[in-house]
């Protein structure tokens, strides 16, 4: 079945704004989506005194929504202070396009998080933030899980009520995710995406992600 895209999404896909690589950029990041393997690269010029994003370009190695969300995200952050961009929610690019099919909501996560990654690199370079040592807590786990979209509902697993349990026991982390009985087809995909996000956190813990339904365990 064909996915339904808004006119604005189609417009940004067919006529992407700010496409390419910025000459003389002072911030850059390439981020991949664990959900599908697509990637996006951003190059930015950030004014080191005012911390305003003065220019930005992107290159996409992904689907139509990857292109459209990255394109609109560049427009949304242009002229903004980096602290305001850091506060942006991961669904804002999708919302600005008038919505995306649920299975494509992770493209918006990638588009926004890619820009935030470039800002993080910039801030490290100018000494505004330290190289963060990840402290794994229940809160940091929940924040990570907010980047994983339920492919059927297009809402992150935390807000969708899928996180049944998180337990950190010394070096061991247990995450229990609950799905509806008819959602088994999504189990492997969600499991892999959670694991890949955990790897990106450079988490050295032993991790067990269990996906269960009301009728028994999927994974
Ligand atoms: Fe994964 Fe679009 S970025 S399908």
Q: What do you see in this structure?
A:
It is a single chain. This protein is 34% helix and 22% strand. With 219 residues, the protein is α+β, with helices and mostly antiparallel strands. The chain folds into 2 domains: 7-125, Alpha-Beta Complex (Sufe protein. Chain: A); 138-213, GMP Synthetase, Chain A, domain 3. It has a 4-stranded mixed sheet with strand order 4-5-6-7, with helices on one face. The chain has a 3-stranded antiparallel sheet with strand order 1-2-3, covered by helices on one side. Strand 4 (163-169) and strand 5 (172-179) form a beta hairpin. Helix 1 packs across helix 2 and helix 2 (64-77) packs across helix 5 (105-125). The longest helix has 21 residues, at 105-125.
């Amino acid at each position: 079945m064909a996915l339904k895209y808004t006119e604005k999404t189609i417009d940004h896909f067919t006529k992407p704004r700010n496409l390419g690589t910025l000459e003389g950029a002072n911030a850059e990041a390439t981020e991949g989506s664990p959900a599908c393997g697509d990637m996006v690269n951003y190059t930015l010029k950030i004014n080191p005194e005012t911390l305003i994003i003065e220019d930005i370009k992107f290159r996409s190695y992904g689907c139509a929504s990857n292109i459209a969300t990255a394109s609109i995200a560049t427009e949304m952050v242009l002229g903004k202070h980096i602290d305001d961009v850091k506060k942006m929610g991961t669904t804002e690019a999708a919302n600005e396009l008038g919505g995306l099919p649920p299975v494509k909501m992770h493209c918006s996560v990638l588009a926004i998080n890619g820009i935030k990654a470039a800002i993080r690199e910039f801030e490290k370079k100018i000494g505004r933030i330290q190289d963060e040592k990840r402290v794994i807590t229940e809160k940091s786990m929940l924040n990570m899980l907010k980047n994983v979209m339920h492919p059927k509902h297009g809402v992150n697993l935390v807000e969708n009520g899928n996180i049944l349990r998180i337990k950190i026991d010394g070096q061991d982390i247990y995450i229990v995710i609950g799905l509806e009985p008819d959602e088994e087809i999504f189990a492997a995909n969600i499991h892999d995406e959670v694991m890949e996000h955990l790897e990106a956190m450079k988490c050295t813990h032993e991790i067990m992600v269990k996906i269960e339904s009301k009728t028994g365990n999927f994974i």
